[in-house]
Each structure stands twice: as structure tokens, then as C-alpha cells.
Amino acid sequence: NGGGGEQPSRALAKRGGGRKRQREHPFIVTEAGEVVRGKNNGLDYLFHLYKFLTQVQKIAKKRGEKCPTKMTNKVFRYAKEEGANHINKPKMRHYVHCYALRCLDEERSNALRRECKLRGQNIGAWMQACYRSVVEITAPRGWDIDAIFGEHPQLSVWYVPTKLRQLCHAERNNATASSSASGGKGTAA
Amino acid sequence: NGGGGEQPSRALAKRGGGRKRQREHPFIVTEAGEVVRGKNNGLDYLFHLYKFLTQVQKIAKKRGEKCPTKMTNKVFRYAKEEGANHINKPKMRHYVHCYALRCLDEERSNALRRECKLRGQNIGAWMQACYRSVVEITAPRGWDIDAIFGEHPQLSVWYVPTKLRQLCHAERNNATASSSASGGKGTAA
DNA sequence: AGAAGGACCAGTGGTCCGTA
DNA sequence: AGAAGGACCAGTGGTCCGTA
Question: Considering CB atoms only, which of B67, B160, B170 is closest to A146?
Fold first, then answer.
């Protein structure tokens, strides 16, 4: 379980009070399997979305309509229609690379969460650390993040986050520059 | 081969005359390999676009930018910038299913062109006939046109034409209905 | 009439920034 | 301050319809 416990928050449930819809509680850094206020945390939400995509695909196929292969606006809309009010596009996109780390190397993902929690770091710091870990993982494959996303079933349905792609690209350029500077056989400048 | 001869029309070339840009000559039905006014015909244009896509992909990859896998607006724009004034999106999309027939069964495509030409049919009639042929080809695969496009390298870069998908869907429904009506083992109604 | 293609439009991918 | 998410925007997929 990717970042916490069981069910979506119901902070928004009792509308009888006439109050505005409450925001979800902010995510916090947790260890694997740890429950937070009896609800899920970030990574679980991303896994949930995979199921919503599958539903949307099944419906489209049955109707003979164009069938989405990615996490499109249509899928987010469907999730919301199905009552998943805790899911929204900007938030989910914000954490996709954390989900990627978890998909690509679960042990490493768990270790990083434990470490960040011990240090008392906030979600933002953990999220930043996830970028570094994913970039390292892509190194043996020439930092080809598109290929790595594409080959993993759970990951291939997500658009590669812009920032992650930029980081991988920068790292590849660094490596090429230094290997050619040191007389290596990298691509010429 | 794909529908005519050698080079794009130069009807638009001499702008010295101060005239407006001329339209391309309308496509006409040709046999495989037949030259028309010393220029290409429809199917060749589609094959050309594959090369433009490859270029766009190479540039995007080098820059570490998002890399298109399909024939997007970006590719059409690139083709135009490279001077391919004879290519435009609505025209090319109009003939994608004809290109598909050619990719999937070249002999059959050639035979159909010969037949339509003999009958003196116009481009529109040939185009309609192409729909029927492609739908027939998809039958053994359960009319799954998306799968068939996806598996063919040349074809997978094109969005499945809406009308073609609808025709395949209708045909599948027909088959299901009649097989269940006749006591076959199709999906129940 | 038959066909080429400029130009439009609804809904997308992407994410900023006013909000709590 | 740190984070959730409504709402916006440039550029897309799709194709109509005024044009030649």
C-alpha cells in the first residue's frame, strides 16, 4: 500500500451543515503500510486511478469509441463522477514521479520514505528526493525516461512529468560532456 | 508506386506572376506505379509523412522534449515548414484508410485501384470502396481496427479514422446479433 | 459535379496561483 | 510556511464548409 491506510477522507461528507466542501488533508510522509487518520495517502490514489482508466477503456471499447491509453482528462472526469472527490489532476500529476519510483523499485521507495520520515521532512522534501532517486534509476538506460515509463504497464499510462524529463535530459548531457572532456567515447560536442 | 509518379506539383512555384497560390491538382485513380502529370498522387503523400515524423522525433529526442508517436499537428506544421506545401491535414486524414489498405494488403490495394480505374470511377468512389475492403480485412480479427493499426509500424502512427472505426463497430454488432439470432455462441443481447 | 484545404471549435495537456 | 485544487490557456484532434 502506497502511502497509508484504507479509505478516502470523508471530511467533505456532511453537507447538512451548509459548510463549503472541505479540502483533503495534506499528504504526509509515511512508511509503507502506515495508516494516516484512517485514510489513504498520495501513492494509493495513483494506484486507484489505474482502475478508473480500465473502466473507461472497457466502456469505450464496448461502444466502439476511441479508447484512451493514457490518464486523460476523461479519466479524471470519470473518477470524479464515480464519487472520487479526493482525486484531481493537478495533485495527481504533482506526485506521478513518486509513484514511478514505487513502481520501478519498491524497496528503494520504502527506504526513502522511512528515511524522510525519520528526518521529519515534509511532503515537498520527500517529493524532491523522489526526483533524484528516479533519475539515478534511469542512468543505466541512458536516462531514457520515456522508454522506462513505456515498458512498465502501470507507468506507461501516465504522461512523463515535464520536470522529470528535463532532469533526465540534463543528467545525460552532463554525462556526455564529462565523458568527452575526459577523453571518453561519448558523442562529440 | 503508391498512387502515381515522381515529385510534388509545382503549380504553386512561379509566384512572380503575382497570382494567388494554386491548389494542388485533384487526385485521380491510378494503377500502382502509374505517373500522373509527372507528380505524385495521394498514397505517396502519406508515405512521405512518415519520414517527416521520424525527423520530428529525432529532433525532439535530441532536445529532451516530449516525443510524438503519432501524426500530430506538429508534424504537419514541420512538413509545411520544410516546403511540403502539397501536404495538409484534412486532405491526408481523408485518405488514411486508403493508405491502410495499401499497408495491410498491397496486392488487394493494387487490384482495387485497377478495377476502379477500369470502371472510370472518381476518387470519391475509390475511397468509399477502400472502406469496405479494410473492414473486410479486419473481420478475422473481430473487427478490432485499433489492434490492427497498432500492430503495423507504418499505420500505428496514424489516428484511426473515425468513420472507419464506426464501420468496424457496426459490422461487429451485426455479426454478434445475427450469430445470436441464429443460435450461435455470440455474446448474448 | 467533385475535390482541396483554410479555418474554426470543443475539449486536451499542462500547471499557475488565489485559497485555506 | 506548505500544500490542495479551481480555473485558466496555448496549442490539439477533428472536420466543416466556403472556395476554386
Answer: B67
- Chain A residues near residue B160 by CB distance under 8 angstroms: 66
Interface test with A, best of B65, B148, B174 (most A CBs within 10 A): B65
Sequence-distant (6+) residues with CB within 8 A of B138 are B144, B145, B148, B168
Strands (E), chain B: none
pLDDT of residue A37: 86
User: Residue A88: which nucleotide is closest by CA–C1'?
Assistant: D5
H-assigned helices in chain A: 42-63, 73-81, 89-94, 96-104, 106-118, 123-138, 145-151, 162-181
Segments of chain B with pLDDT less than 50: 1-18, 184-189
**Chain A nearest-CA residue for B63:** A169
Which residues in chain B are closer than 8 Å to A63, comparing Cβ atoms? 169
Report residues of chain A scoring pLDDT below 70. 1-21, 182-189
Gap between the Cα atoms of B31 and B97, Å rounded: 17
Contacts with B169 from chain A: Cβ below 8 Å: 63-64
Which of A63, A67, A173 has its CB closest to that of B146? A67
Q: What are phi and psi of B39, to 5 degrees?
A: -135, 175
Nucleotides in chain D with any atom closer than 7 Å to protein CB: 2-7, 11-16, 20
Asked if residue B65 keeps its beta carbon closer than 7 A to nucleic acid strand D, the reply is no
How many CA atoms lie less than 13 Å away from B8 in the CB half-sphere? Answer: 17
Interval B3-53: pLDDT, tens: 433 344 444 343 334 455 689 999 999 999 998 988 888 999 999 999 999
Query: Which residue from A32, A38, A45, A46 is spatially nearest to A1, judged by alpha carbons?
Result: A32
pLDDT for residue A5: 35
Q: Are B97 and B134 in contact (CB under 8 A)?
A: yes
Contact at 8 Å (CB) between B24 and B76? no
